[in-house]
């Protein structure tokens, strides 16, 4: 369905103006503003741009890479030129993943509106496409890349070159005979639609056809009964599979005749298998499905470290954009490092380093605007406070005035922390607080401060003081700020001390090395501590490159706030994304019962000692791959893919196995290999599928990955839809697997 905003008179004018192309000013800062020529390509799916001095070589980006269009001064760069360019001429394109924003200024309001409305309409149009249209679209995009002279047709030589670009290395005779079959007009060239047919013949999935024929009574189609049998036998669906078969026919069968006769063709069967319902992720766990009324300490909370940084910890830029990105990803605990700024304005940056500074009031305004866009559940703002009393008073005023009713100030004593449900749309501040409200404003405050921890992070001071007493930090704290704090930062003495004296809203922070030390020395005590108290873990101060530690070790102990550098892509953030993709991306995941029960102690180091120990056998048959992206963009380069399955969880479960690599085929590699694992603690396990390009001389190159909690896996024949290093979709790349889970 084409969106109305594209078809009306205004929509038509917008598209024509964009296709004609125009000069827009690209803005990076107050001093960096350059003219670029931007033009919507004929396919209405790509935007080309070039410097004013470049002759005719346009670089391009796809509309499908754009996540949002923001009108006006809605970025730091555009705010910095607000006095020069009015808001109605400015707009920002926000891209998916970690790619930077594009800030643009048009010559007139009318031109800005053409782009803002035009791109918005094209994005809406793409979102409304069904899967088969998306695939046709993807093939057409490739076709237009190969059609160099833009006459709408390609010959066999161009088609071969295009197949190489698409990661296909194939037998010339086979390709030639299919080319002739697709060339219905007998012109020795293929037009756009003919090429789509050619591609579909090339990608015919023999392994899916075999499975289809195993269940088809007549070898031509699946009746409702055939499909029901497949759902019961292979996908292990129980009750309701007869009704479900009918729903699937209705939803995925492209042929009207087959649909009316309650039949499914092989095309419909393939569309079901590649759909979200046929994916490895159980759709029932996609939306909010957990009990959200338990105390906060019973949940894992998606948490970011040094949220203000876009890059590394030493000289990278600080930006409110980093807060927007983290909050949009469902992050529910952000960090604010506050320092004295000029003109009495507190600033946020990584103290004593060359990272740039941003104003605290801008950070709080951004948090107020974006706090509940991705999730309605409470947001914790962790404050590291290095400000003078005067600037702390300013901090308190900003938090009160800008956050208003969203700020939770009621710190009523109770025996347990409130639940995420009870705290919906509330912002909780975590930081230093007076020991009791009657203390004088320059009284002593106990706190676990990350900067102080870094200074102590040497082996000499690793063990707690022998007398059990911890010196209080002599810290000037302003009462107005102390009164706003809900989660009170306290120094950790011992598990015994916490058990007897800690209040529910008191919370300690541990560096990754401290947390690891306690988990090895006192695993059960740590787990018990985390049934009542919130624990925050943060990366070692030595990680100046913003690298991350593996969060799974901390989740095994029941630590709730495991803070990661969200700006750094890699395996650690894949695991974080994998855990928090379930439960409606709410940023809260209920911990398994074994980590919430106080009467039965669980130790991740000895999972076989639990009462209800039932290890599972996990079989993954890696069957085939589909349209894997190229790693190197050279025309002649084709990948040699292999699949590795990695298990993360309790130490006994950590394992990895991989298939052999397939030479020169990123298009439709066939592995047909079964990997087998024993899972001792299923409720804590995460499974990561990684596809790499094999290289015998150097490290393998990353192609794509997908991470999923073991408890969210659907058995049977499933597609694993791969994600890029940044965690964004690389549709239509996938691997096709068969999953079997049995008791040992």
What would you note in describing this structure?
Residues 434-471 are annotated as: Disordered. InterPro entries: C2_dom, C2_domain_sf, EF-hand-dom_pair, EF_hand_dom, PH-like_dom_sf, PH_domain, PI-PLC_fam, PLC-delta1_cat. Residues 134-169, 170-205 form the EF-hand domain. It is a single chain. This protein has 744 residues and is of the alpha+beta class. Helix content is 30%, strand content 24%. The protein has 23 helices and 30 strands. Strands 15-14-13-16-17-18-19-20-21-12-22 form an 11-stranded mixed sheet. Strands 4-3-2-1-7-6-5 form a 7-stranded antiparallel sheet. It has a 4-stranded antiparallel sheet with strand order 26-23-30-29, with no helix packed on it. Strand 3 and strand 4 (59-62) form a beta hairpin. Helix 2 crosses helix 4 and helix 14 (320-328) runs parallel beside helix 15 (360-370).
Mean pLDDT: 89
Summarize the main sheet: 11 strands, mixed
Q: How many beta-strand segments?
A: 30
Shape: globular
Give the CA-CA distance, first to last residue.
50 Å
Helix content: 25-40%
Low-confidence residue ranges: 439-448, 457-474
Beta strand %: 15-25%
Number of helices: 23
